[in-house]
Every structure is written in structure tokens, then in C-alpha cells.
Backbone:
């Protein structure tokens, strides 16, 4: 990699770090803690039995050793393991707003990574397309988070068809204990409802769906030749016809509704973001939804 490319990557990482840190400190740190749960309860301490305590919590080993009844106390486990499953297929390079879908993915992932860092959580990264490309096991610390962000900033989009199943099957193999897994993709891939449901039963799986405005509304710009970035398929159409634009928009709406329905059936929470909108608004809405459900 050329020195200029390295310098550009480091500059971009620094900018993302500044923005993400400011946002985490000002807005999201408290919300983050309240919407993601630990794997369960962890041991806190033992103390003497008091009238009214549940006899099922008695620590019989300590009681036998001291001759006085003691109970075990537990607290909710707060430190989490967070894993980001990021689709780096070539369709992510598309963007007609201020940034591409992949640029948006990097910013959102970085913000969540710094939120996890503030909570002292372990953070890992898995990039994939038709198969898993890179895997960085979850670790703690700022150096680890910066390394993962650098990896995302320097990623080269892959011109092959996305396989969501490959990423989730790999996750199930390498992570036996429960993790919070963010699956980030534009979901322009074959359906994977069974894999989503199986993965979500073991982990807390959250789908972050990324779209661009031109994937929702087609402009009147005349005759076009379109190339699928992942499969190479070529499609020609005349966008001057209202019926063509209407058919495109109808199919887009149906695809989005079908995706949301599949995620709901699999029990997976969806966080939808667009390249032309403020993703902080979407994040706040998502956090509030999780908070209400947990309460």
C-alpha cells in the first residue's frame, strides 16, 4: 500500500474517532448500557443469611465451613462481547448522497465500537461477502477498536454475490457463548431467514440495513445501462417512462417490506439507516424501542 493511501486512511480514522467520541460522550453512552444485556447473572459476593432471604441461594460450602448460614448474591453481568458482521460486497460502494453505503457502515460501526469501548466491552469484527474474508476475535481496549476501524476504512469491496448464511454459520462455529452481533448489510442477497433465526436463538442478533435514496426512487434521466456490481448482470431501461419508474419503486417498497417481515419472523431487531439521513436519529429511535421493550 502506498504511503499516501496509508496517510489518507489514518486521517479518515482520526476524523471518525473524533466524531464518534463526541457523539458517544454527549448522547449515546447511557442509552447503550440500557439496551444491551449481559449473558445473565454473575456472582457478586456472599453474606450472612437474613430472615426473608431465599433459602435456595444458601452457599452450603461456606455455611458448613463457618457454621453460620451464608447466601450467594448475584448481579447482572454488564460486560458484553460485541461482534460486527460487515458485508463488504461491491454493492456497498454505491452512493448518490454525500457518502456511499460502505462509508455509512464504517461510521455507524465506529460509533457503536466506541460505545462498547466506553462500557469496557470486548469488540470483534468479521468481514464477509460470498464467504468470510477476515475475522478479528473480540478483545478489549482502545488499540483494538482503532485497529478494527482502520481495517474497515481500508477495505476493498468484493465483486461477488453476498452470502449472509456464510457469515452467520461462521459466527456460530467460533462463538459458543452469547454475543451481541450487529449484521450490517444492504441485504441485496438471497433470503436467509432460517440462518437468521438459528443465529438469533444463540445470540442477540441485530440487523443494520443500509440503503441509498436512489434505491427507493428512480429519477427520469433517459435511457440507462445498469450493471450489477456483484454479478456483472447488465440491464437496459428507459427511465423516461412513468410506468418503468413506478414499477421500480413498487418493487423496492415490496422488497423492503419483505425484508422487515423476514427479520421479524426470525426475531431479529432491525435498525434501518439511509445514506441521505442522519443516522443518529435512527440510532436514538432504535435504542428507545429496545428500552421500552425491556421495561
Residues:
Amino acid at each position: 500500500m502506498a504511503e499516501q493511501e496509508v496517510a489518507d486512511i489514518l486521517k479518515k480514522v482520526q476524523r471518525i474517532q473524533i466524531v464518534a467520541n463526541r457523539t458517544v460522550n454527549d448522547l449515546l453512552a447511557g442509552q447503550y448500557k440500557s439496551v444491551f444485556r449481559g449473558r445473565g447473572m454473575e456472582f457478586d459476593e456472599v453474606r450472612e443469611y437474613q430472615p426473608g432471604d431465599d433459602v435456595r441461594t444458601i452457599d452450603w460450602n461456606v455455611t458448613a465451613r463457618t457454621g453460620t448460614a451464608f447466601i450467594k448474591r448475584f448481579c447482572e453481568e454488564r460486560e458484553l462481547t460485541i461482534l460486527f458482521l460487515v458485508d463488504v460486497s461491491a454493492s456497498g460502494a454505491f452512493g448518490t448522497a454525500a457518502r456511499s453505503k460502505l462509508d455509512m457502515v464504517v461510521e455507524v460501526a465506529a460509533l457503536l465500537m466506541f460505545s462498547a469501548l466506553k462500557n469496557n466491552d470486548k469488540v470483534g469484527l468479521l468481514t464477509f461477502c460470498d464467504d468470510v474474508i477476515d475475522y478479528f476475535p473480540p478483545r478489549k481496549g482502545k488499540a483494538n477498536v482503532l485497529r478494527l476501524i482502520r481495517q474497515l476504512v481500508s477495505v476493498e469491496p468484493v465483486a461477488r454475490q453476498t452470502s449472509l448464511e456464510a457469515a452467520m454459520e461462521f459466527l456460530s462455529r467460533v462463538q459458543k457463548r452469547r454475543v451481541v452481533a450487529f449484521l450490517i448489510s444492504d441485504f441485496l442477497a438471497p433470503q436467509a431467514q432460517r440462518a437468521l433465526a438459528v443465529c438469533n436463538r444463540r445470540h442477540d442478533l441485530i440487523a443494520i440495513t443500509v440503503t441509498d435514496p436512489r434505491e427507493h426512487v428512480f429519477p427520469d434521466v433517459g435511457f440507462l445501462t445498469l450493471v450489477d456490481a456483484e454479478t456483472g448482470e447488465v440491464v437496459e431501461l428507459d427511465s423516461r417512462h412513468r410506468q418503468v419508474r413506478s414499477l421500480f419503486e413498487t418493487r423496492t417498497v415490496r422488497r423492503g417490506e419483505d425484508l422487515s417481515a423476514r427479520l421479524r419472523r426470525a426475531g431479529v431487531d432491525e435498525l434501518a439507516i439511509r445514506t441521505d439521513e442522519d443516522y443518529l436519529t435512527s440510532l436514538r429511535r432504535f435504542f428507545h424501542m429496545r428500552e421500552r421493550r425491556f421495561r
Observations:
- The radius of gyration is 23 Å.
- Residues 3-35 form the longest helix (33 residues).
